[in-house]
Design goal:
Layout lengths: L1 H12 L10 H21 L3 E2 L1 H4 L1 E6 L6 H10 L5 E5 L4 E5 L4 H15 L7 E5 L1 H29 L2 H25 L2 E2 L1 H28 L12 H37 L3 H23 L1 H9 L3 H24 L4 H9 L5 H11 L3 H8 L10 H8 L1
Parallel strand pairs: 1-6
Antiparallel strand pairs: 2-4, 2-5, 3-4
Helix pairs in contact: 1-9, 2-7, 4-5, 6-7, 6-8, 7-8, 7-10, 7-11, 8-9, 8-10, 9-10, 9-11, 12-13, 12-14, 12-15
């Protein structure tokens, strides 16, 4: 923990930098693994939709001394075949297939006799599947409108490549969150849809913060004294916002984690787990995508432009020229020159080294890399006068 704090402190003060953009294969491999895991869950297990989407009858009542098997056997004995029993913080919730009024009244009577409850103490609610279809249609419509607004805003405020990278990161977050839902077996309820829309906004917030810093850093890219590729400039912008993004995510995820693990699992507040699970997974994946998915994708799109491709080639040529001049000025220090210039990671600091080296003459470089000359002590006549 102390080591992590020390690294984050050095990144925050600018003493070191994390090479995030320079590792596209790592982030691509990790995203492919997560997406494969999620798609496999959606295909193998599928999403478990709640009664709000599939339709059915819901019975709620309080019976502190009852057990799950006792409730299930009582309801099955009354006629229904598909019975799902859930323990809530205040009682029991039983979901069955759609029942007629007479069948629902029979289940009410059986539960009342078994647990000593009056008919009005067993609440009954019949939900049709058409309501779920309407909710699903509106959810897809809201998602489509949200995506269009995001693309329009980012295209006007920044550019279309940033909008494309942000939308790709959002779809990445949605698929992974849905896959986690499939593997966990949690029911998809209207609260789940609210959680999905919430994580979309949160993930987009981080991406906009990063892109705003990228826009500022790359404003004068290619000008004299700004010897950096587009990828190096984006990496610099990421390091400026990295600690802020991590702190924001940590502050946001702590209350969500308390709702999920304490409220849902320990206290039995089942209505909260649908919302909290989607937000918990979404915040984690959204933070990852806004730092490690959207910026590298943006760099891949931007560096295909002739302007930035030419800038990269110019930097490579300058680096090669400096290495040749250093080797020619000090052949015996060729290994040191390779370590100083050729063995770098290509970050912003390396570009500054190349820029400084390129402006120096071979004679000056020979003095810098060669043995240090000792200062002269004076002539013999001056030394004799000093002794007297």
């Amino acid at each position: 923990m102390i080591a992590v704090r020390a690294v984050l402190s050095r990144i925050y003060t600018g003493e070191t930098s994390a090479n995030i953009v320079g590792r596209p294969r790592l982030w691509t491999s990790l995203s492919v693994i997560l997406l494969t895991f999620s798609v496999a869950g959606l295909i193998v297990r599928g999403l478990s939709f709640g009664v709000e989407f599939t339709g059915g009858s819901v019975f709620t009542f309080k019976a502190p001394n009852a057990s799950i098997e006792q409730v299930r056997s009582t309801v099955v004995g009354a006629g229904p075949h598909q019975v799902i029993v859930q323990a809530t913080g205040s009682g029991w919730r039983v979901v069955t297939e759609s029942l007629s009024s007479a069948e629902a009244a029979e289940v009410q009577r059986a539960l009342g006799e078994e647990f000593g409850l009056s008919a009005d103490r067993v609440s009954t609610q019949v939900i049709g599947s058409t309501w779920g279809d309407e909710i699903t249609e509106k959810a897809w419509l809201a998602l489509a409108v949200f995506m269009l607004l995001i693309v329009g805003y980012l295209s006007l405020a920044f550019e279309w490549r940033m909008a494309l990278a942000a939308v790709a990161a959002l779809l990445h977050d949605l698929v992974i969150t849905a896959g986690v839902y499939a593997w966990s077996g949690f029911e998809v309820t209207p609260a789940t849809l609210l959680g999905f829309l919430t994580i979309l906004g949160y993930s987009l917030y981080d991406a906009v913060v990063v892109f705003d810093m990228v826009k500022e850093v790359t404003r004068d890219l290619g000008a004299p004294g700004r010897l950096k590729t587009y990828g190096q400039a984006v990496n610099e912008a990421l390091n400026r916002t990295l600690v802020r993004s991590l702190n924001t995510s940590l502050v946001a995820i702590l209350p969500v984690a308390s709702i999920l693990f304490v409220g849902a699992f320990l206290l039995g507040a089942g209505a909260l787990k649908d919302l909290s699970l989607s937000m918990f997974v979404g915040i984690l994946v959204g933070t990852y995508s806004s730092l490690c998915v959207a910026p590298p994708l943006l760099v891949h799109l931007k560096e295909r432009e002739p302007r930035y491709r030419e800038l990269r080639e110019r930097i490579r040529a300058r680096r090669a020229s400096v290495k040749r001049r250093v080797r020619a000025a000090a052949p015996e220090a060729g290994g040191t020159a390779d370590a100083a210039l050729g063995g770098t990671s290509g970050g912003a600091a390396d570009a500054e080294k190349v820029e400084a080296a390129a402006g120096a003459s071979p004679k000056v470089k020979a003095v810098q890399v060669g043995p240090r000359r000792q200062p002269r002590r004076g002539t013999r006549r001056q030394r004799r006068r000093t002794r007297r």
